[in-house]
Design brief:
- By secondary structure, the chain is α/β, with parallel strands linked by helices.
- The chain contains 24 helices and 25 strands.
Length: about 775
């Protein structure tokens, strides 16, 4: 450590000294040039002002007058004196103190007389450094202007040299002071930033070993000094602390008799149900994307409710996630089979990427899934488009995912497959045909329409038959389950047990149950020490808006989210209650989505135009009613807005669940803030203490905004407490436990028997 300190100090001393000398040298050069230019100008001005008088005295042949003139300038600042010469360079009048130096004309004077043009030079005469400005003198006669002599203006330049010495002296003293301070600061830095952290890290590792780590916390910055070990040490510490926190939480829950699902409890539960099996998740969207930024590769977590819900499950239980590799650097970061371990900082499960061509992505994802099934399943008055070529791509991609999934399942006994969403309606049947021993569940994250609406789809029979290949189909709410069973009854030949919500088709039984999806609510999460008011003020200042109250909307730019209706309600609110103009600002975080599709592209333009229109109507210098942030935001970027918003507006026209509503509630550890929630969301069935509105009713939503802003602190706290209790008891881990537990409890008989029997008692309390 001492050797390190000495080397560091010596290096810094040499470096600071060299930098100081270089800087001083440059300053001296610049100063000298500036002072010399200034001296040239002063000499020229003085010469021009004296020339006419000296020329007159020369013409009059008045040497005594000339001597008095030159003598007058003997004691002026930096001016050594004057000298007057005849055309041959013989002195006529010279300031007394210059006579020893100027008895004979200097070369610069002779040059001026010879060339009949002024000249100047810095010269050294004896021990004196002087500046001479010489100019020819002319007198008029019948033949015109005639050279009658020369004038030399002499300045003492010793002050320039003195100024340079002053700078060098100050530089030396400054460098000396800097060296002293740097040595002192370096010693302190070495002690505080290296020796101290090493000692604290050693103590901390000992505390980890002995189980006293919670009382021996170490700052993350300390660990940065010990890269590349820092990440592994930090991960180990986090894992140990998480495990101990989970154990303490479990102990508290047992003490209070509560039954809260945690990642650890879910992991134990799933392992006990899986026995020697393994979980496989299939979705279109991957949990981590790799994108190239210049020469580096960035890891991003897509803004997706599905990722928000599923990723904690695999973190807790391990397994394999099969998804479309959509990042431009995804192939570089995966192996030859498209595999990699994630999360990057703390790997817990395998991500298997499936590669799609542009044509496949356009037809399967943008075409059939999002121009067909998405508007078909949402009552948002956008006409679904079904094209035969899109349906072909949809089938081909489902087969490609089935092939990848079967490769991952090879050699795994009793696999459990969780298929996610409307992108893979026919995948359950494809998997079940190849692996009848697999337990297959599909969770449909969007609504299921009534049979009449679903009948629009030309391939409704194939979609329903593909879904019925699953052992378990999950929806968010019972109403969607009922709509699906009614669609099955109308579309395919089957036997439906309405009491138990099961469908028997081709000697295969499928169970249809609701599983309301949720989020993770952990009171152990660290939050800033800032109050909501301070954090809100900071966010608004960053946005360049002066306001006191803030509303929040967080959505993909999708026509089902009711963003335009929301803006109209904000406009009506400000119109009815003008006292809130200049006080209330609504921040809309809108992630652009599916912009390849014309309807989404048009919607983005409509949202921008509507926000601009309303802002123009209520325009003010430092305030505007709507701030539209159109880009992808990470969860870490959104959380400060959740924590500080006075209200959150969720005005979906039709939504399976809407996790934004639950994320807002889960983030509000201060038990403040008001949720305004569309009655057309699945979340409205659970979050009954939200102010529920019909988003099509602009007046009602405007009144809800006023009620939220004027609600008493006690009522806000009571409502938020009840909603947080609901989410805490029905969190994402409980959702996963119910879904996985139920599919694991399905009994599969032998292939020869060709029959699956459902075992009761599947749902987890």
């Amino acid at each position: 450590m001492r050797l390190l300190s000495a080397r560091l100090i010596i290096s810094l001393i040499i470096g600071v000294t060299l930098v100081s000398l270089s800087t001083s040298y440059y300053q001296v050069i610049v100063l000298k040039r500036q002072m010399q230019r200034d001296l040239d100008r002063r000499a020229e001005v003085l010469g021009e002002s004296l020339a006419s008088n000296v020329e007159r005295d020369l013409q009059r042949d008045a040497p005594h007058t000339l001597q008095r003139t030159v003598q007058q300038f003997a004691n002026r600042e930096h001016l050594a004196g004057l000298a007057v010469y005849d055309p041959q360079g013989h002195p006529i009048a010279v300031t007394t103190n210059l006579q020893p130096l100027m008895e004979s004309a200097p070369p610069i004077v002779l040059q001026a007389l010879k060339e009949d043009h002024d000249a100047k030079a810095f010269v050294r005469m004896g021990i004196a450094s002087i500046h001479i400005y010489a100019l020819p003198l002319h007198g008029g006669d019948k033949l015109g202007n005639k050279l009658i002599g020369g004038l030399a203006i002499v300045h003492d330049t010793g002050y320039i040299h003195g100024e340079a010495l002053r700078i060098w002296r100050e530089t030396f003293l400054s460098a000396l002071a800097h060296v002293f301070l740097i040595v002192l600061i370096t010693l302190l830095i070495v002690r505080w930033s290296i020796a101290g952290p090493i000692a604290r890290t050693a103590y901390w590792i000992k505390a980890l070993r002995t189980g006293r780590a919670m009382s021996a916390r170490i700052k993350p910055l300390d660990l940065d000094l010990f890269r590349p070990l820092a990440r592994e040490v930090a991960t180990m510490a986090e894992s140990l602390n998480t495990a101990r926190s989970a154990a303490e939480l479990e102990a508290r829950l047992r003490e209070t008799g509560e039954s809260i699902w945690t990642p650890e409890r879910l992991a134990v539960h799933v392992r006990s149900r899986l026995e020697d099996g393994r979980i496989f998740v299939v979705s279109n969207r991957e949990p981590y994307t790799h994108t190239r930024r210049g020469k580096s590769i960035e890891v991003n977590v897509p803004a997706s409710g599905l990722v928000t819900a599923i990723e904690p499950v695999l973190r807790a239980c391990g397994g394999t996630w099969v998804a479309h590799g959509s990042g431009d650097a995804d192939a570089e970061t995966a192996d030859s089979r498209g595999r990699l371990m994630v999360p990057p900082d703390d790997p817990h499960y395998t991500l298997r990427r499936v590669w799609l061509s542009k044509e496949e992505e356009q037809g399967y994802y943008y075409g059939f899934a999002n121009e067909g099934l998405w508007p078909l399943c949402h009552i948002a008055h956008t006409r679904p488009l079904f094209r035969a070529e899109d349906w072909k791509h949809y089938q081909d991609v489902n087969r490609k995912f089935a092939k990848a999934l079967l490769e991952e399942m090879e050699g795994v006994s009793n696999p459990v497959v969780l298929v996610q969403d409307y992108h893979f309606a026919i995948l359950p049947r494809l998997i079940k045909q190849k692996r009848p021993d697999a337990r297959v569940a599909i969770f449909w994250h969007i609504p299921w329409p009534n049979p009449e609406a679903f009948g629009i789809c030309p391939w409704q029979r194939e979609l329903v038959d593909g879904l019925l290949g699953a052992d378990l189909i999950g929806f968010h709410i019972q109403a969607h389950c009922t709509n699906f069973l009614q669609t099955v009854d109308r579309v395919v030949e089957s036997r439906i047990d309405w009491d138990h919500s099961t469908v028997q088709r081709h000697e295969h039984r499928t169970t249809v149950h609701p599983f309301p999806i949720s989020v993770d609510l952990s009171d152990e999460k660290k939050v800033p020490r800032q109050s909501a008011y301070e954090e809100r003020a900071s966010l608004l200042k960053t946005l360049g808006v002066e306001a006191v109250l803030m509303g929040l909307g967080v959505d993909r730019l999708d026509y089902t989210k009711g963003i335009l209706e929301r803006f109209l309600a904000i406009e009506r609110f400000l119109e009815k209650y003008p006292r809130y103009q200049g006080v209330f600002t609504f921040v809309q975080i809108g992630a652009p989505s599916r912009t390849h599709i014309k309807r989404y592209h048009d919607l983005q333009a409509e949202v921008e135009a509507e926000a601009e229109r309303i802002n123009w109507r209520f325009r003010a210098e430092q305030w505007k009613p709507i701030v539209l942030l159109e880009r992808q935001h990470s969860h870490q970027e959104i959380e400060p807005y959740y924590r500080s918003a006075d209200l959150c507006l969720v005005t979906s026209l039709h939504d399976g669940m809407n996790l934004v509503a639950k994320e807002f509630v889960a983030t509000r550890q201060d038990e403040r803030g008001v949720l305004i929630l569309s009655c057309f969301t699945g979340a409205a069935r659970e979050l009954r203490d939200a102010l529920q509105v019909n988003p099509y009713d602009v007046e009602q939503t405007a009144e809800a905004i006023r009620a939220a802003l004027e609600m008493s602190a006690e009522e806000k706290e009571l409502r938020m407490q009840r909603m947080r209790k609901e989410i805490r008891e029905h969190n994402v881990y409980r959702w996963a436990a119910n879904l996985i537990g139920e599919v694991c409890d399905i009994r599969l008989d032998s292939r020869e028997k060709g029959e699956n029997e459902y075992r009761a008692g599947a749902s987890v309390a």
